[in-house]
Structure formats: structure tokens, C-alpha cells
Amino acid sequence: MRVRTALGRVALAALTLTPPALAAAPARAEAAPLPAITDDRGRTLLLHGLNTAGSAKGPGGLPWVKREDVVREARELGTNSVRYLVQWKNVEPEPGRYDDAYLDDVAERVAWYGDQGMHVVLDMHQDIYGPSACAGSGNGAPAWATFTDGLPCTPQDPWVLTYLQPGILRAYDNFWNNTGKHPELVRRYTAMWQHVARRFSRVPAVLGYDLMNEPFGGTRQFGFFEGPILTPFYQGIVNAIRRVDGDNWVFVEPQALGPNEGAETSLGTVRDPRPGDPRIVLAPHFYPGGVDLGGSYDGVAKMLVQAQFTLWKRNMPAAARRMNTPMWLGEVGGMGQDASGAADFTGDWLSMADELGIGWAYWSNDPGSSGITDGEGKPTLFAKLLARPYPRAVAGTLTNVAHASGTLTVTWRNKTGVPGPTEIWFPSAPKVTSSDPDGTWRTSWDATRHVLSVWADPGTPSHTVTVRP
Questions:
Q1: Are the CB atoms for 203 and 110 separated by under 8 Å?
Q2: What is the DSSP letter of 417?
């Protein structure tokens, strides 16, 4: 959900109640990196990618992209991942009947990304519950799972205010069974996810599953929702998925209202029943109030947004550490390229992600002012900014990523039992130096994919590689 001025103001108001000393406090440095998302070799994955796509919210549930668009994205932007939108209403058009033809269409598109060496996170997307909850609004839930109890709903402008319409609040309350009337809805949603996971468990390109886009608790919010309702909801789905898929990662989001703007989350620990290392990821979004829907990143607005940067950098990693999970920025963006400060805002959140050692999925690849191409297919400002050198897979524990005037510096530590090279995406043929002793390390350059592979000295515990044009 790209928002946010209206509900964002509510969260921003809550943030302004924070004691001044706390709000002004810098993000706390942590001695150790966050846990990492890893590939099948155990290498640290730094996921850079796009959300594909807002167009998938339509009736057919499929995005606009073609195979050639995926090829171009991988080559020109260097993306190694995609957050691919699917919808409950398309997966399960009737209770207990799954549309496997739709999932076949999804699988065909997933294969396009796999052919480019990209990792796919399937995102079960919803906004404003579903299209049957309010005529002319919403995506996600099927009509048979929508119970507004006859309460009215009129689409609002800005659209995010539609969340506060009586019919929408009741639809969510019935889904979460806040009303005590519909316990079957969560059971059906859980079974639907198990079906999807069974279908994609052996598809190599699929890295994992984002269980619900931007959960909204209806009339129950914050601590009344995330702890007692959302956490066990996630746990039930994880348990169901693990009965059919023991390997893929599972991504869980905090509620949108508040955490998107930097407020703390009370989401509890979701435990992974798989033997060995857990594969749960905290996947918050970042939409600070004031930069979306025509907002700017200058003057007083920039000061307010920077305060939200500080809060987000403190509160979201703290939640990931509490839950002992990696973290991934599942949605970020929202500014048009002509908005004042759009380049600075993009540069600042990119730097924040590098500082935290986390990946991201930009919203979105749909053509337009806030996309990577405009309405005529020309690259936007964001295409240029997002095509930034980065380590896509690190053969060890990533400890630092730094950019300076087109030069990329990457530092990592050895990790036992992690084979293969460190892979770095770079837009042009690079010049490479390493802190390893001469003759102990080597590189290979793939000019087609723009990927530099670095085999570091196994006898050196820490490595710093500098890559220049």
C-alpha cells in the first residue's frame, strides 16, 4: 500500500508525542550485524529489487510486465530480487477451490525472474481489505470472505481514508474474528497459503513468502492487534507452510499504521518449526509522513521526515533483534521524480539501507513519475539512483557497504562452510583492489550481467574489496 498522508498523519501525531530527548536521539550503533537472509550456499543475500506490480492489483491479478522487461530490469538496474504481488481472491475464488491456472500464470512469470538469476518473494497483497468491501476500492480478499454486515463504505480522497469507513473496519474485524462471527476466515487464509507454498516449494527462483501486505487491525490497533492477534495469525501460517515447505523464507510485516513512519512495533516473535536455522524475516515498510501523495523533502517537511528516519533506524532493527530475525525493507518510495527533494530522499533511504546492511524492494516498477520509467518508457530519476553498485551475494558475514563518487567498498568476514564467490553488481567494467595479500584472491567479470565475482583468501579472516569504474 503506497500511502500515506491521511493515516500517516495519525502515526506522525503519535510520534510527535515522543519526549524530545528520545526523538532527537541518534540511532544506536550495534556491535554485530543483524542476522542475514542467505542463499542455498549460505551466502549473505542483499536483496535489491522492485515491487511487481501495482498493476497486479486488478481483476486478473497479473502484472503488466513481459519477459523482456525482466531482462532489461536485471541488466540495467542490477536487481537480484522481486517482490511479486499475488492476491487471495485470485488464488481462492471460492471457498476451498484454488485456481491453479492462475498459479501457473504466476509460475510462468516467476520463471522469467529465475532465468535472470533473481530471487522471488511472493507477496499476498491487500489494500482496503478487498474489492467487495467498498465498490471502487481495494484489492486482496475474495467476495466470499468479505463481511461488512451491511455497513456503508464510500471511497475517499486521499484513498487511504477509506480504511476508516464503517464497512471496511467491519470487514477487517470479521476477518480477524474480532466480532466472534467468522473464525473460518483465518483458517481459510492459512489453508490458502499452504496451497501456494506447496505449489512453489520446489521452484528454485522462489526465495520466500510475504504473508500479508500491510496488515490493518480494523478497530483494534497497535498493542491490541499486533501482539494478541497478528502474531498468532502469522505463527499459524508458518506452521502450515512448514508442513509442505521446509526451506523457503517467510516474511512477516508489522502493522502499517505507525511502524511505516518509524513507530515501535509490538509484533511478537514468530517461531520457525523447521530443524536447524530459522528462516523468518521481519519485513517492515518505510513511508514517512510528508513525502507521499505530492509531499516534498525540503524545509520543515524534510526535518520532520529526518526525525522519522531516526526513529525507523532505531525501532525496526531493535524489533528484528528482539525477534532474532533478518530484516528486509519490503516497500519504500512514493515520491514523484519532480517532487522537491526526491533525489535526496531516495539517496537517504538507500544510505540507510546500506548502513543497516539490509535489502529493499522499491515501489514500484509501474510506469509513471514515481516508477523507474515514465509514461513514454524513458528512465526516470529513480532508475538512475537505484542502479547503484552493491554486493548481491557475500561469501561470509557482511560488515560494511560504502559508496563514494562511484566507488563501492565492501567488507565481510569469513563464515565457516560458505562456499562460492562474493558477487558484486557494477554497471561497468571495474577496477578492483583487495585488502587480501597479493596472489591469494582472484576475480571474474561477467560483462553480460555486470557481475563481478570475487574469490577471497580463505586464510584471511576479513576482507575489504574496493571497486572503481
A1: yes
A2: T
Q: Which cell is 311 given? A: 526513529
CA distance 409 to 21: 34
Query: What is the structure's pLDDT at 293?
Result: 62
User: What whole-number distance in Å separates Cα of residue 113 and Cα of residue 119?
Assistant: 7
- Residue 137 and residue 159 in contact, taking contact as beta carbons nearer than 8 Å: yes
- Given a contact cutoff of 8 angstroms between Cβ atoms, the answer to whether 467 and 423 are in contact is no
d(CA 127, CA 363) in angstroms, rounded, equals 14
Residues in a beta bridge with 390: 425
CA angle, 356 as apex, 353 and 358 as ends, to 5°? 60
Residue type present at position 327: M
Cis ω for the linkage preceding 301 (within 30 of 0): no
Which strand ranges, in their side-by-side order, compose the sheet holding 249-252?
Answer: 280-282, 249-252, 206-210, 119-124, 81-86, 48-52, 359-363, 328-333, 285-286
Q: What is the pLDDT of residue 29?
A: 43
211/192 Cα distance (integer angstroms): 11
Say how many C-beta atoms besides its own lie within 10 A of residue 281's C-beta.
29
SS3 285: strand
Model-level pTM greater than 0.85?
yes
Please state, for a pLDDT cut of 70, what percent of the chain lies above it.
Answer: 93
Under DSSP, the state recorded for 228 is I
Kindly state the DSSP code that residue 229 receives in the 8-state scheme.
I
What's the Rg (C-alpha) of the chain? 22
Helix (H) or strand (E) holding 83, with range, is strand 81-86
Closest CA to 171 of 151, 191, 157, 201: 151
C-alpha 183/C-alpha 29 separation (Å) is: 43
> CB–CB of 390/401 below 8 Å?
yes
Amino acid of residue 440: T
Per-residue pLDDT band at 276 (split at 50, 70, 90): confident
349: left (phi over 0), alpha (psi -120 to 50) or beta: alpha
Amino acid at 52: T
